[in-house]
Task: inverse folding
């Protein structure tokens, strides 16, 4: 069952991976952030909802195995 410990562990992993991306590829991350600033709000919202749904589904599947 998915509980708060699993959610916090998942958030910690995401933070670690994001930190590594900034440490290893700072220029690419700056370009990515600049390109995100030009996207319409609706597109960002849709992308965020899709990413959140995929993340929740993946966490549920991983924990259920």
Result:
């Amino acid at each position: 069952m998915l509980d708060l410990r699993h959610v916090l562990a998942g958030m910690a992993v995401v933070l670690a991976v994001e930190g590594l991306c900034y440490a290893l590829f700072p220029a690419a991350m700056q370009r990515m952030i600049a390109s995100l600033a030009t996207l319409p709000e609706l597109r960002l919202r849709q992308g965020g909802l899709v990413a959140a749904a995929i993340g929740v589904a993946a966490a549920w599947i991983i924990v259920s195995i």
Summary: The mean pLDDT is 91.
